[in-house]
Design goal:
This protein is of the alpha+beta class and 301 residues long. The chain folds into 2 domains: 3-171, Fructose-1,6-Bisphosphatase, subunit A, domain 1 (Fructose-1,6-Bisphosphatase, Chain A, domain 1, 2-Layer Sandwich); 181-300, D-Maltodextrin-Binding Protein, domain 2 (3-Layer(aba) Sandwich). The chain is 37% helix and 22% strand. An 8-stranded mixed sheet has the order 2-1-3-4-5-6-7-8, sandwiched between helices. A 5-stranded mixed sheet has the order 10-9-11-13-12, with helices on both faces. Helix 3 runs antiparallel to helix 4 (48-73) and helix 5 packs across helix 8. The structure holds 2,6-di-O-phosphono-beta-D-fructofuranose and zinc ion (ZN). 2,6-di-O-phosphono-beta-D-fructofuranose binds next to loops.
Length: 301
Amino acid sequence: MYLKDFLAQEKTDKNLAEVILFLSSQAQDVKKGFLAAARNAIADEKTKNMYGEEQMALDKYADGIFINGLKKTRLVRSIATEEQDHIIEIENPKNDFGIVIDPLDGSSLIDVNLCVGTIIGICKGSVLDAGKDMIAAMYILYGPLTTLTVSAGSGVHEFAMDEAGEFFLRQRDIRIPEGKIYAPGALRKDYLPAHAQWIARLEAAGYKLRFSGSFVADVHQILHKGGVFTYPGFAGKEKGKLRLLFEANPMGKIITDAGGATSNGKTAILSVKPEKIDQRTPVYIGGKKEIASIETFMRER
Ligand code: FDP
Ligand code: ZN
């Protein structure tokens, strides 16, 4: 079954379904950018730093695809993206939705052809709404398959792109299983004490390390195999590295809707009211058990 038919069957709000379908259709153009960048890289292989610039350009290229498409279709009122320092307001919008986008997460892995993705949250109104008020979240993963994982009020579902660029249903009602994978960001030497103890506890319990450097891909793995991803606050950067709006909230909604949980170490990330678009947050995301245990460690210190 195709995404369009699935959204209709699930009785997804018509306007919301239109936004989800439009965003998913942009994946093909993002993929064209990967190929173009690879071709340019070969042409410029003598000048190594040119390749670095191509990588940077792909972030901007993907950003442009989503922003220009949304401006043209006027499907949403406002857009905040990781690549822009201000909220973009659309003139004469057809809906009141606010959209938060990380156009290309994990972009440092493009040159080695590892998995990267696009992360999107859809708010009913303001892009600065708390994560729990988002009405939908989705991510596109550019891997061996191009997949779309979406939560829009009726569970978490995964689609895969076919030869014609259409997304067909691959897995319905995904629930995060119990599992023993941990994906720990930041340098061990900078860990704060409670975090260090919690990591030691996971290791003693036999958790296996899996960290690619692409947040969206690493959390995707946790969604399917269980366990926990973390990019904590650490010495010198107590607020962590990852962004509340573009990374933690949309992925947090998907994991939570699949039966998992998310925390900044003290409280559910989705309950935090953002103050600014580039706000950072410590991130713990995964199984309920692991998230409850880091909150206990943090409380007891
Ligand atoms: P990137 O800078 O490549 O966009 O968004 C930040 C992010 O990647 C995440 O995708 C990833 O989990 C994290 O940074 C990796 O950070 P480290 O290089 O510090 O491990
Ligand atoms: Zn990112």
